[in-house]
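look at this stuff:

>
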Amino acid sequence: MLKQCFVRGCTRRYIQQRLFSDESSNHAFDRAVKVLQRDGIARAQRAWRESGNDDIIDYDYFRLEIGKRLIDRLDDIKREDGFPLALEIGAGPGVLHRLICSDDAIDGEGGIGGIRKLVQIDSSDLMLRRDEDIPVEGSERCGTYRLNTDEESKMPFPDGTFDLVISSVSLHWVNELPRLFDDVKRILKPDGCFIFAMVGGTTLPELRSSLVMAEMEREGGVSPHVGPFVELSDVGGLVSGAGFNLPTIDVDTVEITYPNSMVLMEHLQRMGESNACINRRPRTSIDTFLASACLYDEMFKLKDEERLTTNEEVEASVQVIYSIGWSPHESQQQPDDRGTAQQKIGDMIEFTKVDES
């Protein structure tokens, strides 16, 4: 009965959001569906936790791992006054806030990065407030405020509000990334920092290829199942195009092991990472689903490099792109004026005569 009520409620809210949505037809993702997916997962995770069951799996493990790597990069930025006021885009259940509170800033004021106040925003209010009743160790170092707002809409903050804007593995579901980056630059103070980690284009190639082969064989066509993520080569253009200075980019490939592909797909769903492409099929047949699972388990078994053997576990690869950009300020490094060079590159090159004999 509760499940039926939940489904009817989601359907009714989905229809309302779609009727009054101004989403462009060229968008890749259905934001209304993504919010419903994450709301449902947050509701279920909270219920599991409150049930007192000790066997509950923590599906935040990937977000936690990437959050640690992102906070390590933030901690490497040495700034005299730190970043007192910060904004997190796509905060989810508050993983970054817990990591920021886990240690003091170098000068003893604020959490990691010198953050003393973190504003968390997310389009899913239930996910944003999922763990708000759980005490955060070290919360006296960095206070927080949660705000439910759509990341694709203009953020409700005045120009030049924040010292830092940070985001961890949430930007890959945003349709209008250039508009979002422009808005981030607007709300940053001069010499403010924008640091983020996002899922890149070569994510889950194993699952993508398994589903393509299964659909081609069983249904004679292909539909999107793994979202079209931003390519590494495009991130620099996004950051520079929004007007950020001194952009830096690096990339990780994270390999995760699962007992089989069924467990992988279950974890993706429980993380709130189910398919939300606009042109997705409403339903994948059981036949295609089982075929893709069998292909995955056969083709992508985990290899033991020492014994040169394989076992029954499978691998999943996730590309994570990290980037840092700075809002313009006169104190930043500036290129010399054109024409002020004192030497020619040609004068610095030594030519070696090749003996053709």
